[in-house]
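Subject: Interface between my chains keeps coming out wrong

I've been trying for a while to get a sensible model of this assembly. When I model each chain on its own everything looks fine, but I need the whole thing in one frame so I can look at the contacts. Pasting all components below, labels as-is. Any help appreciated, I'm running out of ideas.
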Amino acid sequence: MTHVQARTATAETVAEALERAIHEHRLPPGTKLGEDELSEIYGVSRTRIRAALQALSHRRLVEHQRNRGAFVAQPTVREAREVFEARALLEPRTARSAAMRMSDAHVTALQAHIDAEHAALHAGENGRALSLSGEFHIEIARIADQSTIEAIVRQLVVRSSLIIALYWRRRSALCESHAHGALIDAFAARDGALAEELMAHHLLDLVTSLDLRNQSSQPGSLRAALG
Amino acid sequence: MTHVQARTATAETVAEALERAIHEHRLPPGTKLGEDELSEIYGVSRTRIRAALQALSHRRLVEHQRNRGAFVAQPTVREAREVFEARALLEPRTARSAAMRMSDAHVTALQAHIDAEHAALHAGENGRALSLSGEFHIEIARIADQSTIEAIVRQLVVRSSLIIALYWRRRSALCESHAHGALIDAFAARDGALAEELMAHHLLDLVTSLDLRNQSSQPGSLRAALG
DNA sequence: GTGGACATTATTGTACACAATCCCTGCCAC
DNA sequence: GTGGCAGGGATTGTGTACAATAATGTCCAC
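Reply #2:
Try treating it as a single job with all components included. I did that and got this:
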Protein backbone atom coordinates (compact mmCIF):
# COMPACT_ATOMS: atom_id res chain seq x y z
CA MET A 1 0.00 0.00 0.00
CA THR A 2 1.12 3.52 -0.64
CA HIS A 3 1.46 5.86 2.30
CA VAL A 4 -1.64 7.61 3.48
CA GLN A 5 -1.64 11.32 2.69
CA ALA A 6 -0.57 13.51 5.58
CA ARG A 7 -3.52 15.84 5.99
CA THR A 8 -5.71 16.36 2.98
CA ALA A 9 -5.12 15.01 -0.49
CA THR A 10 -4.95 17.61 -3.23
CA ALA A 11 -6.37 16.99 -6.69
CA GLU A 12 -2.90 16.24 -8.01
CA THR A 13 -2.25 13.78 -5.22
CA VAL A 14 -5.41 11.89 -6.07
CA ALA A 15 -4.56 11.93 -9.77
CA GLU A 16 -1.09 10.56 -9.08
CA ALA A 17 -2.46 7.83 -6.84
CA LEU A 18 -4.98 6.80 -9.47
CA GLU A 19 -2.31 6.90 -12.18
CA ARG A 20 -0.10 4.60 -10.11
CA ALA A 21 -2.99 2.22 -9.55
CA ILE A 22 -3.74 2.15 -13.27
CA HIS A 23 -0.08 1.65 -14.13
CA GLU A 24 0.17 -1.25 -11.69
CA HIS A 25 -2.97 -2.94 -13.03
CA ARG A 26 -4.77 -2.57 -9.73
CA LEU A 27 -7.45 -0.74 -11.70
CA PRO A 28 -8.16 -2.78 -14.82
CA PRO A 29 -9.44 -1.13 -18.00
CA GLY A 30 -13.16 -0.43 -17.84
CA THR A 31 -13.31 -0.01 -14.06
CA LYS A 32 -15.97 2.44 -12.99
CA LEU A 33 -14.52 5.37 -11.07
CA GLY A 34 -17.49 6.67 -9.10
CA GLU A 35 -17.07 10.15 -7.73
CA ASP A 36 -18.80 9.57 -4.40
CA GLU A 37 -16.86 6.36 -3.92
CA LEU A 38 -13.52 8.02 -4.58
CA SER A 39 -14.37 11.05 -2.47
CA GLU A 40 -15.07 8.73 0.44
CA ILE A 41 -11.90 6.70 -0.13
CA TYR A 42 -9.59 9.69 -0.25
CA GLY A 43 -11.54 11.77 2.25
CA VAL A 44 -11.94 14.77 -0.01
CA SER A 45 -14.88 16.48 -1.61
CA ARG A 46 -16.22 15.54 -4.99
CA THR A 47 -14.85 18.77 -6.45
CA ARG A 48 -11.27 17.60 -6.10
CA ILE A 49 -12.12 14.13 -7.35
CA ARG A 50 -13.64 15.65 -10.45
CA ALA A 51 -10.52 17.72 -11.05
CA ALA A 52 -8.35 14.64 -10.70
CA LEU A 53 -10.52 12.63 -13.08
CA GLN A 54 -10.44 15.48 -15.55
CA ALA A 55 -6.66 15.51 -15.45
CA LEU A 56 -6.52 11.77 -16.13
CA SER A 57 -9.07 12.19 -18.89
CA HIS A 58 -6.81 14.70 -20.62
CA ARG A 59 -4.02 12.14 -20.45
CA ARG A 60 -6.35 9.57 -22.03
CA LEU A 61 -6.13 7.32 -19.00
CA VAL A 62 -9.82 7.54 -18.16
CA GLU A 63 -12.77 8.02 -20.48
CA HIS A 64 -15.73 10.15 -19.56
CA GLN A 65 -19.22 9.13 -20.60
CA ARG A 66 -21.78 11.86 -20.32
CA ASN A 67 -24.02 11.41 -17.30
CA ARG A 68 -22.51 7.96 -16.83
CA GLY A 69 -19.26 8.77 -15.12
CA ALA A 70 -15.57 8.07 -15.54
CA PHE A 71 -14.07 4.71 -16.42
CA VAL A 72 -10.51 3.48 -16.73
CA ALA A 73 -9.75 3.79 -20.44
CA GLN A 74 -9.95 0.83 -22.79
CA PRO A 75 -7.62 1.66 -25.67
CA THR A 76 -8.75 0.27 -29.00
CA VAL A 77 -6.48 -1.76 -31.24
CA ARG A 78 -6.02 1.33 -33.34
CA GLU A 79 -5.00 3.42 -30.34
CA ALA A 80 -2.63 0.68 -29.27
CA ARG A 81 -0.84 0.78 -32.60
CA GLU A 82 -0.73 4.56 -32.49
CA VAL A 83 0.74 4.67 -29.01
CA PHE A 84 3.57 2.36 -29.92
CA GLU A 85 4.11 4.21 -33.19
CA ALA A 86 4.59 7.41 -31.21
CA ARG A 87 6.91 5.67 -28.78
CA ALA A 88 8.92 4.27 -31.68
CA LEU A 89 9.48 7.80 -32.94
CA LEU A 90 10.38 9.32 -29.58
CA GLU A 91 12.22 6.81 -27.45
CA PRO A 92 15.06 5.41 -29.59
CA ARG A 93 16.63 8.77 -30.31
CA THR A 94 15.93 9.89 -26.76
CA ALA A 95 17.88 6.83 -25.60
CA ARG A 96 20.75 7.96 -27.81
CA SER A 97 20.66 11.41 -26.22
CA ALA A 98 20.55 9.83 -22.77
CA ALA A 99 23.63 7.75 -23.57
CA MET A 100 25.52 10.94 -24.31
CA ARG A 101 24.68 12.51 -20.95
CA MET A 102 24.90 9.31 -18.94
CA SER A 103 26.91 9.52 -15.72
CA ASP A 104 28.02 6.61 -13.57
CA ALA A 105 25.41 7.59 -11.02
CA HIS A 106 22.75 7.37 -13.69
CA VAL A 107 23.86 3.90 -14.69
CA THR A 108 23.75 2.59 -11.12
CA ALA A 109 20.35 4.20 -10.62
CA LEU A 110 19.01 2.49 -13.71
CA GLN A 111 20.52 -0.79 -12.56
CA ALA A 112 18.82 -0.39 -9.20
CA HIS A 113 15.60 0.15 -11.07
CA ILE A 114 15.99 -3.15 -12.87
CA ASP A 115 16.89 -4.93 -9.66
CA ALA A 116 13.75 -3.63 -8.01
CA GLU A 117 11.75 -4.79 -11.00
CA HIS A 118 13.19 -8.29 -10.76
CA ALA A 119 12.57 -8.39 -7.03
CA ALA A 120 8.95 -7.42 -7.53
CA LEU A 121 8.60 -10.04 -10.25
CA HIS A 122 9.95 -12.79 -7.99
CA ALA A 123 7.73 -11.59 -5.14
CA GLY A 124 4.74 -12.17 -7.36
CA GLU A 125 3.95 -8.47 -7.54
CA ASN A 126 3.35 -8.56 -11.24
CA GLY A 127 1.70 -5.18 -11.58
CA ARG A 128 4.38 -3.41 -9.62
CA ALA A 129 7.05 -5.02 -11.78
CA LEU A 130 5.30 -3.75 -14.89
CA SER A 131 5.08 -0.30 -13.40
CA LEU A 132 8.79 -0.26 -12.60
CA SER A 133 9.52 -1.52 -16.08
CA GLY A 134 7.60 1.42 -17.47
CA GLU A 135 9.36 3.90 -15.25
CA PHE A 136 12.63 2.65 -16.65
CA HIS A 137 11.62 4.18 -19.97
CA ILE A 138 10.55 7.42 -18.30
CA GLU A 139 13.83 7.61 -16.43
CA ILE A 140 15.73 7.48 -19.70
CA ALA A 141 13.89 10.55 -20.96
CA ARG A 142 14.71 12.28 -17.69
CA ILE A 143 18.39 11.45 -18.05
CA ALA A 144 18.26 12.81 -21.59
CA ASP A 145 17.26 16.05 -19.87
CA GLN A 146 14.15 16.47 -21.98
CA SER A 147 11.30 17.16 -19.59
CA THR A 148 8.80 17.79 -22.38
CA ILE A 149 9.53 14.46 -24.02
CA GLU A 150 9.52 12.91 -20.56
CA ALA A 151 5.97 14.09 -19.97
CA ILE A 152 4.84 12.73 -23.32
CA VAL A 153 6.61 9.42 -22.78
CA ARG A 154 5.10 9.09 -19.30
CA GLN A 155 1.65 9.45 -20.75
CA LEU A 156 2.39 6.92 -23.50
CA VAL A 157 3.95 4.47 -21.05
CA VAL A 158 0.94 4.41 -18.76
CA ARG A 159 -1.36 4.03 -21.74
CA SER A 160 0.87 1.16 -22.80
CA SER A 161 0.18 -0.45 -19.45
CA LEU A 162 -3.52 -0.37 -20.24
CA ILE A 163 -2.81 -1.78 -23.69
CA ILE A 164 -0.80 -4.61 -22.17
CA ALA A 165 -3.64 -5.35 -19.79
CA LEU A 166 -6.00 -5.73 -22.73
CA TYR A 167 -3.92 -7.29 -25.48
CA TRP A 168 -1.11 -9.20 -23.82
CA ARG A 169 -0.58 -12.72 -25.12
CA ARG A 170 0.73 -15.28 -22.70
CA ARG A 171 3.92 -16.27 -24.48
CA SER A 172 7.29 -14.66 -23.87
CA ALA A 173 7.07 -14.20 -20.13
CA LEU A 174 10.36 -12.59 -19.20
CA CYS A 175 10.30 -10.22 -22.13
CA GLU A 176 11.70 -7.17 -20.45
CA SER A 177 14.59 -8.28 -18.37
CA HIS A 178 17.09 -8.94 -21.13
CA ALA A 179 16.16 -5.93 -23.21
CA HIS A 180 16.59 -3.50 -20.33
CA GLY A 181 19.81 -5.20 -19.27
CA ALA A 182 21.25 -4.87 -22.74
CA LEU A 183 20.23 -1.21 -22.78
CA ILE A 184 22.11 -0.60 -19.56
CA ASP A 185 25.22 -2.18 -21.04
CA ALA A 186 24.98 0.19 -24.00
CA PHE A 187 24.50 3.12 -21.62
CA ALA A 188 27.48 2.07 -19.52
CA ALA A 189 29.56 1.95 -22.70
CA ARG A 190 28.17 5.36 -23.75
CA ASP A 191 27.25 3.74 -27.06
CA GLY A 192 24.44 6.01 -28.24
CA ALA A 193 23.96 4.32 -31.59
CA LEU A 194 23.63 0.92 -29.95
CA ALA A 195 21.21 2.27 -27.34
CA GLU A 196 19.05 3.73 -30.08
CA GLU A 197 19.07 0.45 -31.96
CA LEU A 198 18.28 -1.59 -28.86
CA MET A 199 15.42 0.66 -27.86
CA ALA A 200 13.90 0.48 -31.32
CA HIS A 201 14.06 -3.29 -31.26
CA HIS A 202 12.74 -3.43 -27.71
CA LEU A 203 9.65 -1.44 -28.66
CA LEU A 204 9.15 -3.56 -31.74
CA ASP A 205 9.33 -6.69 -29.61
CA LEU A 206 6.76 -5.21 -27.28
CA VAL A 207 4.29 -4.61 -30.10
CA THR A 208 4.77 -8.07 -31.56
CA SER A 209 4.11 -9.60 -28.14
CA LEU A 210 0.60 -8.12 -28.29
CA ASP A 211 -2.42 -9.58 -29.99
CA LEU A 212 -3.65 -6.68 -32.10
CA ARG A 213 -5.42 -8.62 -34.83
CA ASN A 214 -8.97 -7.46 -34.18
CA GLN A 215 -10.95 -5.90 -31.41
CA SER A 216 -11.12 -8.10 -28.32
CA SER A 217 -13.09 -7.38 -25.17
CA GLN A 218 -14.35 -4.20 -26.75
CA PRO A 219 -17.95 -3.13 -27.39
CA GLY A 220 -19.09 -5.43 -30.14
CA SER A 221 -16.96 -8.33 -29.00
CA LEU A 222 -20.12 -10.11 -27.93
CA ARG A 223 -21.09 -10.85 -31.49
CA ALA A 224 -17.64 -12.20 -32.24
CA ALA A 225 -17.59 -14.30 -29.08
CA LEU A 226 -20.98 -15.86 -29.63
CA GLY A 227 -21.04 -16.07 -33.43
CA MET B 1 -14.47 36.88 -35.86
CA THR B 2 -15.44 33.31 -35.11
CA HIS B 3 -19.10 32.41 -34.99
CA VAL B 4 -20.93 32.99 -31.78
CA GLN B 5 -21.88 29.78 -29.98
CA ALA B 6 -25.45 28.68 -30.61
CA ARG B 7 -26.86 28.53 -27.12
CA THR B 8 -24.41 27.96 -24.30
CA ALA B 9 -20.71 27.39 -24.65
CA THR B 10 -19.44 24.14 -23.18
CA ALA B 11 -16.11 23.92 -21.41
CA GLU B 12 -14.52 22.40 -24.50
CA THR B 13 -15.89 25.19 -26.67
CA VAL B 14 -14.32 27.78 -24.42
CA ALA B 15 -11.03 25.88 -24.36
CA GLU B 16 -10.96 25.68 -28.16
CA ALA B 17 -11.74 29.37 -28.51
CA LEU B 18 -8.95 30.25 -26.10
CA GLU B 19 -6.56 27.89 -27.84
CA ARG B 20 -7.33 29.55 -31.18
CA ALA B 21 -6.78 32.97 -29.67
CA ILE B 22 -3.46 31.87 -28.24
CA HIS B 23 -2.43 30.26 -31.49
CA GLU B 24 -3.27 33.43 -33.41
CA HIS B 25 -1.35 35.67 -30.99
CA ARG B 26 -4.47 37.50 -29.96
CA LEU B 27 -3.58 36.48 -26.41
CA PRO B 28 0.13 37.16 -25.91
CA PRO B 29 2.20 35.16 -23.42
CA GLY B 30 1.66 36.34 -19.86
CA THR B 31 -1.87 37.61 -20.40
CA LYS B 32 -3.98 37.28 -17.28
CA LEU B 33 -6.99 35.08 -17.81
CA GLY B 34 -9.37 36.17 -15.07
CA GLU B 35 -12.19 33.76 -14.37
CA ASP B 36 -14.88 36.35 -13.78
CA GLU B 37 -13.83 38.23 -16.89
CA LEU B 38 -13.97 35.11 -19.06
CA SER B 39 -17.24 33.95 -17.57
CA GLU B 40 -18.78 37.29 -18.52
CA ILE B 41 -17.28 37.24 -22.02
CA TYR B 42 -18.54 33.77 -22.85
CA GLY B 43 -21.73 34.01 -20.84
CA VAL B 44 -21.10 30.89 -18.80
CA SER B 45 -20.49 30.27 -15.14
CA ARG B 46 -17.05 30.19 -13.59
CA THR B 47 -17.26 26.43 -13.23
CA ARG B 48 -16.94 25.89 -16.97
CA ILE B 49 -14.27 28.53 -17.30
CA ARG B 50 -12.24 26.75 -14.66
CA ALA B 51 -12.62 23.45 -16.48
CA ALA B 52 -11.48 25.06 -19.72
CA LEU B 53 -8.47 26.68 -18.06
CA GLN B 54 -7.57 23.37 -16.45
CA ALA B 55 -7.62 21.69 -19.85
CA LEU B 56 -5.32 24.33 -21.30
CA SER B 57 -3.10 24.06 -18.26
CA HIS B 58 -2.66 20.34 -18.88
CA ARG B 59 -1.61 21.16 -22.43
CA ARG B 60 0.94 23.64 -21.02
CA LEU B 61 -0.73 26.54 -22.80
CA VAL B 62 -1.61 28.36 -19.60
CA GLU B 63 0.19 28.39 -16.28
CA HIS B 64 -1.64 28.39 -13.00
CA GLN B 65 -0.31 30.35 -10.05
CA ARG B 66 -1.83 29.46 -6.73
CA ASN B 67 -4.35 32.06 -5.61
CA ARG B 68 -3.16 34.30 -8.41
CA GLY B 69 -5.00 32.87 -11.35
CA ALA B 70 -4.27 31.61 -14.84
CA PHE B 71 -1.93 33.25 -17.32
CA VAL B 72 -1.05 32.49 -20.91
CA ALA B 73 2.11 30.42 -20.66
CA GLN B 74 5.55 31.92 -21.16
CA PRO B 75 7.77 29.05 -22.29
CA THR B 76 11.36 29.35 -21.14
CA VAL B 77 14.30 29.03 -23.48
CA ARG B 78 14.77 25.52 -22.19
CA GLU B 79 11.16 24.59 -22.90
CA ALA B 80 11.47 26.13 -26.36
CA ARG B 81 14.42 23.89 -27.19
CA GLU B 82 12.60 20.87 -25.78
CA VAL B 83 9.44 21.52 -27.78
CA PHE B 84 11.35 21.70 -31.04
CA GLU B 85 13.42 18.67 -30.09
CA ALA B 86 10.19 16.70 -29.65
CA ARG B 87 8.84 18.00 -32.93
CA ALA B 88 12.07 17.03 -34.66
CA LEU B 89 11.59 13.47 -33.48
CA LEU B 90 7.92 13.21 -34.38
CA GLU B 91 7.19 15.21 -37.47
CA PRO B 92 9.74 14.17 -40.10
CA ARG B 93 8.87 10.50 -40.00
CA THR B 94 5.19 11.36 -39.70
CA ALA B 95 5.58 13.36 -42.90
CA ARG B 96 7.04 10.29 -44.51
CA SER B 97 4.06 8.22 -43.40
CA ALA B 98 1.72 10.91 -44.69
CA ALA B 99 3.40 10.83 -48.08
CA MET B 100 2.62 7.13 -48.32
CA ARG B 101 -1.08 7.64 -47.67
CA MET B 102 -1.42 10.88 -49.59
CA SER B 103 -4.36 11.09 -52.00
CA ASP B 104 -4.93 13.75 -54.62
CA ALA B 105 -7.68 15.19 -52.43
CA HIS B 106 -5.22 15.50 -49.59
CA VAL B 107 -2.75 17.35 -51.77
CA THR B 108 -5.32 19.87 -52.96
CA ALA B 109 -6.54 20.35 -49.38
CA LEU B 110 -3.01 21.08 -48.23
CA GLN B 111 -2.52 23.46 -51.13
CA ALA B 112 -5.73 25.26 -50.19
CA HIS B 113 -4.33 25.55 -46.68
CA ILE B 114 -1.22 27.27 -47.99
CA ASP B 115 -3.25 29.57 -50.20
CA ALA B 116 -5.35 30.62 -47.22
CA GLU B 117 -2.17 31.25 -45.27
CA HIS B 118 -0.79 33.48 -48.03
CA ALA B 119 -4.08 35.32 -48.30
CA ALA B 120 -4.08 36.00 -44.57
CA LEU B 121 -0.49 37.17 -44.75
CA HIS B 122 -1.25 39.64 -47.55
CA ALA B 123 -4.34 40.83 -45.69
CA GLY B 124 -2.11 41.76 -42.79
CA GLU B 125 -3.65 39.11 -40.54
CA ASN B 126 -0.32 37.98 -39.26
CA GLY B 127 -1.57 35.90 -36.36
CA ARG B 128 -4.10 34.08 -38.47
CA ALA B 129 -1.41 33.27 -41.01
CA LEU B 130 0.77 31.82 -38.29
CA SER B 131 -2.13 29.76 -37.02
CA LEU B 132 -2.84 28.36 -40.48
CA SER B 133 0.84 27.64 -40.88
CA GLY B 134 0.73 25.62 -37.69
CA GLU B 135 -2.37 23.74 -38.72
CA PHE B 136 -0.54 22.67 -41.84
CA HIS B 137 1.71 20.58 -39.62
CA ILE B 138 -1.25 19.18 -37.72
CA GLU B 139 -2.98 18.29 -40.97
CA ILE B 140 0.01 16.20 -42.00
CA ALA B 141 -0.29 14.11 -38.87
CA ARG B 142 -3.98 13.67 -39.60
CA ILE B 143 -3.25 12.50 -43.13
CA ALA B 144 -0.73 10.06 -41.71
CA ASP B 145 -3.75 8.63 -39.87
CA GLN B 146 -2.08 8.88 -36.49
CA SER B 147 -4.55 10.58 -34.18
CA THR B 148 -2.36 10.10 -31.10
CA ILE B 149 0.61 11.75 -32.75
CA GLU B 150 -1.76 14.38 -34.10
CA ALA B 151 -2.86 15.31 -30.59
CA ILE B 152 0.74 15.56 -29.42
CA VAL B 153 1.79 17.59 -32.45
CA ARG B 154 -1.16 19.92 -32.00
CA GLN B 155 -0.05 20.62 -28.45
CA LEU B 156 3.53 21.21 -29.55
CA VAL B 157 2.50 23.43 -32.44
CA VAL B 158 0.45 25.77 -30.29
CA ARG B 159 3.25 25.90 -27.76
CA SER B 160 5.54 26.74 -30.67
CA SER B 161 3.27 29.68 -31.42
CA LEU B 162 3.91 30.97 -27.91
CA ILE B 163 7.62 30.40 -28.37
CA ILE B 164 7.59 32.35 -31.63
CA ALA B 165 5.76 35.18 -29.90
CA LEU B 166 8.53 35.35 -27.33
CA TYR B 167 11.71 34.56 -29.21
CA TRP B 168 11.14 35.46 -32.85
CA ARG B 169 13.89 37.49 -34.46
CA ARG B 170 12.87 39.90 -37.17
CA ARG B 171 14.94 38.56 -40.04
CA SER B 172 13.71 36.00 -42.56
CA ALA B 173 10.16 37.22 -42.93
CA LEU B 174 8.61 34.80 -45.41
CA CYS B 175 10.15 31.78 -43.79
CA GLU B 176 7.32 29.36 -44.13
CA SER B 177 6.02 29.77 -47.62
CA HIS B 178 8.77 28.04 -49.50
CA ALA B 179 9.25 25.24 -47.02
CA HIS B 180 5.59 24.26 -47.05
CA GLY B 181 5.44 24.58 -50.83
CA ALA B 182 8.40 22.25 -51.22
CA LEU B 183 6.76 19.81 -48.86
CA ILE B 184 3.63 19.77 -50.97
CA ASP B 185 5.70 19.01 -54.05
CA ALA B 186 7.24 16.05 -52.24
CA PHE B 187 3.79 14.90 -51.15
CA ALA B 188 2.42 15.21 -54.67
CA ALA B 189 5.31 13.06 -55.89
CA ARG B 190 4.69 10.58 -53.06
CA ASP B 191 8.36 10.94 -52.18
CA GLY B 192 8.34 9.97 -48.51
CA ALA B 193 12.10 10.17 -48.06
CA LEU B 194 12.18 13.68 -49.47
CA ALA B 195 9.23 14.77 -47.34
CA GLU B 196 10.99 13.49 -44.23
CA GLU B 197 14.15 15.34 -45.17
CA LEU B 198 12.33 18.55 -45.97
CA MET B 199 10.37 18.48 -42.73
CA ALA B 200 13.52 17.91 -40.70
CA HIS B 201 15.20 20.88 -42.37
CA HIS B 202 12.10 23.00 -42.02
CA LEU B 203 12.00 22.45 -38.26
CA LEU B 204 15.72 23.13 -38.00
CA ASP B 205 15.25 26.39 -39.88
CA LEU B 206 12.47 27.32 -37.49
CA VAL B 207 14.69 26.84 -34.47
CA THR B 208 17.57 28.78 -35.95
CA SER B 209 15.21 31.67 -36.71
CA LEU B 210 14.64 32.03 -32.97
CA ASP B 211 16.78 33.89 -30.49
CA LEU B 212 17.31 31.32 -27.76
CA ARG B 213 20.56 32.64 -26.33
CA ASN B 214 19.37 33.58 -22.87
CA GLN B 215 16.13 34.34 -21.12
CA SER B 216 14.36 37.39 -22.54
CA SER B 217 11.10 38.89 -21.33
CA GLN B 218 10.96 36.37 -18.53
CA PRO B 219 10.53 36.98 -14.81
CA GLY B 220 13.68 38.82 -13.90
CA SER B 221 13.85 40.56 -17.24
CA LEU B 222 12.92 43.78 -15.50
CA ARG B 223 16.37 44.05 -13.99
CA ALA B 224 17.98 43.31 -17.34
CA ALA B 225 15.79 45.79 -19.18
CA LEU B 226 16.39 48.61 -16.73
CA GLY B 227 19.98 47.90 -15.73
C1' DG C 1 9.30 62.57 3.26
C1' DT C 2 10.00 57.75 3.89
C1' DG C 3 9.12 53.25 5.69
C1' DG C 4 6.29 49.92 7.69
C1' DA C 5 2.01 48.05 9.43
C1' DC C 6 -2.78 47.59 8.76
C1' DA C 7 -7.25 47.56 6.48
C1' DT C 8 -9.61 47.05 2.23
C1' DT C 9 -10.69 44.96 -2.00
C1' DA C 10 -10.59 41.84 -5.55
C1' DT C 11 -9.79 37.23 -7.03
C1' DT C 12 -9.30 32.41 -6.60
C1' DG C 13 -10.16 27.88 -3.92
C1' DT C 14 -13.55 24.87 -2.04
C1' DA C 15 -17.67 22.86 -0.71
C1' DC C 16 -22.33 22.18 -1.02
C1' DA C 17 -27.06 22.16 -2.80
C1' DC C 18 -30.01 21.64 -6.54
C1' DA C 19 -31.13 20.15 -11.30
C1' DA C 20 -30.73 16.90 -15.04
C1' DT C 21 -30.08 12.46 -16.68
C1' DC C 22 -29.84 7.65 -16.77
C1' DC C 23 -30.48 2.90 -15.04
C1' DC C 24 -33.17 -0.35 -12.90
C1' DT C 25 -37.29 -2.36 -11.04
C1' DG C 26 -41.97 -3.33 -10.93
C1' DC C 27 -46.31 -3.26 -13.00
C1' DC C 28 -49.71 -3.69 -16.49
C1' DA C 29 -51.61 -4.84 -20.96
C1' DC C 30 -51.74 -7.97 -24.55
C1' DG D 1 -44.80 -15.03 -20.97
C1' DT D 2 -43.22 -11.06 -23.36
C1' DG D 3 -43.02 -6.34 -24.37
C1' DG D 4 -43.59 -1.71 -23.16
C1' DC D 5 -44.17 1.98 -19.85
C1' DA D 6 -43.87 4.47 -15.72
C1' DG D 7 -41.85 5.38 -11.19
C1' DG D 8 -38.02 5.38 -7.97
C1' DG D 9 -33.26 5.61 -6.88
C1' DA D 10 -28.72 6.74 -7.74
C1' DT D 11 -25.17 9.32 -10.05
C1' DT D 12 -23.32 13.07 -12.54
C1' DG D 13 -23.63 18.14 -14.24
C1' DT D 14 -23.90 22.89 -12.90
C1' DG D 15 -24.37 27.08 -10.47
C1' DT D 16 -23.74 29.66 -6.43
C1' DA D 17 -22.33 30.97 -1.81
C1' DC D 18 -18.71 31.22 1.36
C1' DA D 19 -13.81 30.97 2.88
C1' DA D 20 -8.96 31.78 2.05
C1' DT D 21 -5.42 34.29 0.11
C1' DA D 22 -2.82 37.81 -2.19
C1' DA D 23 -2.43 42.49 -4.00
C1' DT D 24 -3.28 47.25 -3.26
C1' DG D 25 -4.09 51.58 -0.97
C1' DT D 26 -3.99 54.24 3.29
C1' DC D 27 -2.50 55.87 7.48
C1' DC D 28 0.64 56.82 11.13
C1' DA D 29 5.13 57.04 13.33
C1' DC D 30 9.66 58.52 12.95
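Reply #3:
Confirming on my end. Residues 45-48, 66-68 of chain A lie near DNA strand C (CB under 10 Å from a C1').
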